[in-house]
Amino acid sequence: MANLYQYQNTSMVELSLPTEPQNPKRRYSVPKPEELPKSNTKDLMIVLIQVFMAEAPRGIILPTLSPYIQSTGISNTDLFLGLAVSAFSIGRLISAYPFGYLADSTGSSRFALQIATVIVIISNTIFAFAGSWNSQFAPWAIVISRFFVGFGSGTLGVSRAFMAKISSASERTRYITWNTLAQYAGFSLTPMLAEGISRFIPHANTQTKYGLIPGLAISGLSVCMLLLLCIMRETDLEDAVYNKLEDSKEEKQKDLELQHVGKQGAQKLFYGFILYFILNFSLRGVLGVAETYGGTEFQSYFPNDPNRVDRSSEFFFYLGMGGIFFYFIIPSLAKLLTDFCTLVLGIVSLAVGSILMLPYLSGNSFAIFVNAMVLIWSMGSPITQTLTISTYSQMMGSKPQGAAMGWLTTAGSLGRILFPIICGVNLGAGAIVNVVTCVLSLLLVILFRLVYVD
């Protein structure tokens, strides 16, 4: 973290100007995926699959974690539900920066991803069998296993740095969108996976259906992921990023303008990091509230339905499909409205959804609950998750970004740790905190925009 404070005394050229290759006529021109060399396209696809797999352990147990904890016979289910959700984020928090630093220091993402995948395999296997252990220790075994699952999933900084490495600043939003789309899909679409597998085991008991199947499913898929990582290249991807194109007068003029930004540009980068760290903390925390209680709240509307857990899986699947739709239109929105206006739209969506979640407004209205979840889960989260990463990544230019992306990932994990704990105390308190958080985030974004106008 100390290195970030040095930004104030560093020139903008040092911070964000692209580093020229030895050949002065080689310029940044990032091809589309289909235009990348075949080997680099393969690596890109492997990293995107790994991003999906990093989020799958969180998503697959979204509707089943609460009944899995209940099956252990513990009385205080809400407390252990909050602890289990937070434990995952604590593990990710601890590992995010080390994994990012490892990728930066070695110049390769593969080794860090391999270590993380092995941890995920072991910890998910423990989670699968934890519910069948001694009833007093079983809830704690679930919480501890979720911690190590989160630790192994703390590779988002590595994947984001990879996307930054193979893209120019002007293409950053598109590449980061692919990354966050894979992340969102892993989180939002996998709740249906466990339900689909359980249909082939019709007489499975509660612990098998809600713990054993999700845990072993992720372990098995992670083994396949490990095999894919073995064929990923260790070499630097510079050749995928630079095309041999002549410098245009316009590009040269832009470089000259950047070289004269000076101290103000350095301050913009420094305070921009603080802003986007806060935004990742607060806005990911808002999603953490919906993640913690969304499944439980949905199931509460169907108390007499024996298939209410399966129905909640389908509900989150449809929310995820809506979110994927928004991911596909984010680049177009950013061009039409600018990145700033699109980010504001995402924050407002989270704020309105959080207001609808307030108990005295939602009451027992299922329609209001659904609209609130759509605004938070399917609209606000995809937009803010993409823009809070891509915008700062654009500001950094071609600097190595593994450590910086690791810190931003850490911020998101912190939010997902603290906000679910608040929910564990009171859902109404969590909704109120969400509303206040969104309003303050919006004010900070507007203030930064006024001070550092592009």
From TrEMBL:
Bilayer disposition of the protein: Multi-pass membrane protein
Gene3D superfamilies reported for this sequence: MFS general substrate transporter like domains
Keyword Transmembrane helix: yes
Molecular functions (GO terms): transmembrane transporter activity
UniProt xrefs under InterPro entries: MFS, MFS_dom, MFS_Domain-Containing_Protein, MFS_trans_sf
SUPFAM superfamilies for the chain: MFS general substrate transporter (SSF103473)
Pfam annotation, one family: MFS_1
PROSITE patterns: MFS (PS50850)
Name of the protein in its database record: Major facilitator superfamily (MFS) profile domain-containing protein
Originating organism: Boothiomyces macroporosus
